[in-house]
Design brief:
single chain, mainly beta, Jelly Rolls, seven-stranded antiparallel β-sheet, 2 helices, 38% strand, EC 2.4.1.207, hydrolase, cell wall biogenesis/degradation
């Protein structure tokens, strides 16, 4: 068997900045669902991260990062993709609910065609495999599933202007009811690259969004997107990364 389906109702609580946990096994393609409830109240300067990473010098990584804020201000959800050690692919949105009030499901669908970031099954971001056009894509390095709570006060909230208010601690983020349906790395990419009943995520029907998913994706982009690296001409001296001019789906 080359794939793993695992779910759990167990809840993990991170209450100390610098706390983290990680899967023992690594995976090459699949879908990960994680229920998370974020820090309540004044969370400025904190970063709650849920991601996949290969932990190599030229690492691949797929990130959800929740950037804390002062009490009453919305969280910012930042996503990023590292491919062959290069990142600078940040996007940011405001969520349409309070993520500290209850658990919500944050998902990564990673296959040979695309990476889809989802919130409660709504696609909020796509990163397409344009490898044939010279765009780096995570496709060879197996990754573990990781989560952490850490001190990002140098940059996370208003560019580092709002620091952690330590008097508001402890800072509690809860993780639970997770599901890993992914291809376990056993040293051979052929086990994970193909289409099969086990590797359902690689099937052609998951090579793009459905019609309904496209409508939701456009809604997120129109009403909730606050930063897209592909629109930041100043950052890249008017030479945007190649994938910015290519189709998202």
């Amino acid at each position: 068997m080359s794939s793993l389906y695992f779910s759990a109702l167990r809840t993990y609580v991170l209450i100390i900045l610098g706390a983290s946990f990680s899967s023992i096994q690594t995976f090459l393609f699949g879908q990960i669902d994680m229920k998370i409830k974020l820090i309540r109240g004044s969370s400025q300067g904190t970063v709650v991260a849920y991601y996949m990473s290969s932990d190599q010098p030229n690492r691949d990584e797929i990130d959800f990062e929740f950037l804390g804020n002062v009490n009453g201000q919305p969280y910012i959800l930042q996503t990023n993709v590292y491919a062959e050690g290069l990142d600078n692919r940040e996007e940011r949105i405001h969520l349409w609910f309070d993520p500290a009030k209850d658990f919500h499901t944050y998902s990564i669908l990673w296959n040979i065609h695309q990476i889809v970031f989802m919130v409660d099954q709504i696609p909020i971001r796509l990163y397409r495999n344009h490898g044939e056009k010279g765009v780096a894509y995570p496709r060879l390095q197996p990754m573990s599933v990781q989560a952490s709570l850490w001190n990002g006060e140098s940059w996370a909230t208003r560019g580092g202007h709002d620091k952690i208010d330590w008097s508001k601690g402890p800072f509690v983020a809860s993780f639970g009811d997770y599901k890993i349906d992914a291809c376990i790395w056993i040293g051979n990419t052929s086990f994970c690259n193909g289409e099969s009943t086990e590797n359902w995520w690689n099937k052609n029907e998951f090579s793009s969004l459905t019609r309904v998913q496209k409508r939701w994706f456009k809604w997120v982009r129109k009403y909730h997107l606050i930063y897209d690296y592909c629109q930041d001409y100043g950052r890249f001296n008017n030479k945007l990364p190649k994938e910015c001019s290519l189709p998202k789906y």
